[in-house]
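Appendix B. Chain record.
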Amino acid sequence: MLDGFPKTVSLVDGAVLTLRAMTRDDENDVSRFFGSLPSETIRFLRSDVTNRKVIAGWMRELNYEKTLPIITEHGGRIVAGSSLHRQTFGWGRHLGEVRVVIDPSFQGRGLGKLLLEEISRIGAGRGLRKLVAKVVSTQGAVLTAFDKSGFVRVATLEKYVKDAGNHYADIAIMVKNLVPGTSTST
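Structure tokens predicted for this chain:
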């Protein structure tokens, strides 16, 4: 399915996690993961992850060439989801977009940086030249994880997103250059 997966990794605090590609069989666990997250964590996500129909749609449309969802498990439960989105044709085929959501109990433990480095390795191996992320500017710890993983803020879009309560937020556009076909980035 995906070379090198599933993969066992350890955080600096000794927690042992498993990274693997999401499959259609994960629908209930993915729904449970997103349903367990506090509203502040899912506030600015692009999809209504509390809606089972949204999760079911993801499962029906799984296509690892366009979207590679990686789930992170600890003790048999999902504690993070990350994904690499890419166009397979057109002007953006050299770009990948990165998304990461982490259970609050695993935030601040180096998991975000680890996932971003893993997605960078996969993206470079698939010939991508750049990774792009859109991060809500008030999420300082998230911005720091992207910074530590080699992403650079290239723009800020003011009052660009709006949550369900009609509150606006700025978005930081973060970019990381990759060396295609390798496991390293610049």
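Further analysis of this model is presented in Appendix C.
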